[in-house]
Design a protein that fits this description.
single chain, about 300 residues, alpha/beta, eight-stranded parallel beta sheet, about 35% helix, disordered N terminus, disordered C terminus
Length: about 300
C-alpha cells in the first residue's frame, strides 16, 4: 500500500471513530465555565457517557457516533443505554478494564474477595498491593489463572448478549507497558499458558473480547511505546486512545499521528475541561487526530467542538 493510500485510510478511519477515558470509578471534577463559542463537529463524534442513564443522557448522539457507556448500576441500565444509542444510529461501547479489582465488592460481575486466588501475587507469594482506590484496596488481576480468565470471558459474552457493539478497555498502557507488565504471578494454580506475563495475559484478554464478537478500543498509554509491542496490534484494534497527548503538546500529537499512519488505526486524544481546552481541541484536530470532549455530557457541553 502506498503512503498516500495509507494516509487516506487513516484519515477515513479517524473521521469515523475516536475515544477517551477517565475511570468511571473516580470522581470527575466539575466542568469549568469556558467563555468560548461552541461549534459542533460535522463528522461522527465520540461521546463518553459515564453517568447513569437518564431520559436525556444520549440526546446529543447522532448517526455513526461512537458512545462509550460507563458501568451502569443494573443490567437494565445497560440495556436502556444500548437501545438509546442504537435508536439514534450510534455505536455502543462499554467501559471495561481487567487490570485490577476492588477487594470490598463485586466489580464487573466478579467478587475478588470470594476468589483471592484470582489475584496476582509477587515473587514471595503475597498479594501484590496495587492501590487504595475509592476507599478500598484494589489488587492486580491474574488473567493467566484459568478460572479468572473464564469468569471475565463470561462477563464479555454477557455484554455482547445485551447488544453492545464493542468494549473500551481501560488501563491498557499500564498493563502492557508498566512495571508489572513483565512480571509473572507466583501463585497461579491452573495457568492458561505457563509462564505468561501480566502484560501478555492482558493482551490475550483483548483477543478474548474480539473472539466473542466485540470490537476493541484500547486506552494505550504512550503510543510510541505501544507501537513496539506487535502482539497488541495483531488483535485488530478498532482504535487507541492517548489521554495525555493534548497536554504534552505538538511533538506528542505528531508522534501519535505517525502511529496512526503506520498502523492504519484511529488514534483519539482526550481533552478535559480546562482553560486551555479550546486550543487543545484545535491542536488535536490540526494533527489529524480525533479530539474527545471529556467523559460526561456536562464536559462535552463545556468544551469547544471545532470542525475537523
Amino acid at each position: 500500500m502506498t503512503r498516500a493510500l495509507v494516509a487516506a485510510a487513516v484519515a477515513a478511519a479517524l473521521g469515523a471513530v475516536g475515544f477517551g477515558v477517565l475511570s468511571p470509578t473516580e470522581a470527575s471534577p466539575a466542568s469549568p465555565s469556558l467563555s468560548v463559542p461552541t461549534r459542533v463537529a460535522s463528522r461522527p463524534a465520540v461521546r463518553f457517557r459515564y453517568e447513569p442513564v437518564t431520559a436525556t443522557t444520549f440526546d446529543a448522539v447522532r448517526p455513526l457516533d461512537t458512545v462509550i457507556v460507563g458501568p451502569q448500576p443494573t443490567v437494565d441500565g445497560d440495556r436502556r443505554a444500548v437501545a438509546a444509542v442504537h435508536a439514534r444510529g450510534g455505536r455502543a461501547f462499554r467501559y471495561v478494564q481487567f487490570y485490577w479489582a476492588p477487594t470490598d465488592r463485586t466489580y464487573q460481575t466478579v467478587a475478588i474477595r470470594r476468589h483471592p486466588d484470582w489475584a496476582f501475587c509477587d515473587a514471595s507469594g503475597a498479594l501484590t498491593d496495587a492501590h487504595v482506590h475509592t476507599g478500598a484496596p484494589w489488587v492486580y488481576l491474574d488473567l493467566n489463572e484459568r478460572a479468572a480468565r473464564n469468569a471475565y470471558v463470561r462477563f464479555l459474552r454477557a455484554l455482547h448478549a445485551i447488544g453492545y457493539d464493542g468494549v473500551f478497555v481501560d488501563m491498557g498502557g499500564h498493563a502492557i507497558l508498566g512495571p508489572t507488565s513483565t512480571a509473572i504471578s507466583a501463585c497461579t494454580a491452573n495457568p492458561v499458558v505457563r509462564g505468561r506475563t501480566f502484560g501478555a495475559a492482558y493482551i490475550a484478554m483483548l483477543g478474548q473480547a474480539r473472539d466473542v464478537g466485540l470490537q476493541v478500543f484500547l486506552n494505550g498509554g504512550i503510543l510510541t511505546a505501544l507501537d513496539r509491542v506487535p502482539a497488541v496490534w495483531n488483535i485488530g484494534l478498532a482504535g487507541v486512545l492517548d489521554e495525555r497527548a493534548a497536554w504534552r503538546g505538538p511533538r506528542a500529537l505528531a508522534a501519535d499521528r505517525a502511529v496512526a499512519t503506520a498502523r492504519v488505526v484511529p488514534v483519539a486524544v482526550l481533552v478535559r475541561p480546562n482553560r486551555h481546552a479550546a486550543d487543545q481541541v484545535a491542536a488535536v484536530a490540526a494533527a489529524g487526530l480525533a479530539p474527545v470532549y471529556g467523559v460526561r455530557a456536562a464536559d462535552e457541553a463545556a468544551l469547544t467542538l471545532v470542525r475537523t
